[in-house]
Amino acid sequence: MKIGIIAASGKAGSTLLEEAIKRGHDVTAIVRNKEKLQNKEVAFIEKDLFDLTSLDLAGFDVIINAFNAPQDKPNLHVTSLAHLTSILKDSDTRLVVVGGAGSLYINKEHSLQLKDGKDFPDAFKPTAIAMSEALANLRLVTDVNWLYLSPAAFFNPEGERTGHYTLTGEEFTTNEKGESVISYQDYAVALLDQIETNTDNQVRVSVRY
């Protein structure tokens, strides 16, 4: 497939980039600064996310949005997704979003999210709130083929690639050890698996060990 990865020079984006290349896809890095790309051989579009147009993204089978807003500007999670859905509307391009764990539900009624829990770190709340709002807005989008993949609560940049993971739904879950964790590398495995084998549309799923 022809896959474009927004923020391909970041931690998650660069991991996804290498996983997609490893699988033989035609990959384009979409970055603000091409000099920050670790892979100097990959095709690229050097452009700010908010300057991207429908023409820039035409012809891609999938756009992966790995953009992570600065902690002091959490609302960019909301505005960036709004921009991407506006330029992808009514196209055949699938938008796959690297999401957050804070919006996973912690009760069966789906009235409380992980970010609402008393143990959720205050430092991460503004980002979690903004990402939850961005997801809520995305759920209203009916003219874009989108998939939102939430990682586990501990999204481990240093973890190894095992190739194993557990795909779960909208609710926060833990493994048999009571842990909610996934490495960046195995998150990339799960996300690319979803792109290659899954046809679910306009849904959020989550992944952990």
TrEMBL record:
Top-level taxonomic group: Bacteria
Positions of the NAD(P)-binding domain: 8-196
InterPro entries for the chain: NAD(P)-bd_dom, NAD(P)-bd_dom_sf, Polyketide_Oxido-like
Protein name as catalogued: NAD(P)-dependent oxidoreductase
Organism of provenance: Candidatus Vagococcus giribetii
Biological classification of the source: Bacteria, Bacillati, Bacillota, Bacilli, Lactobacillales
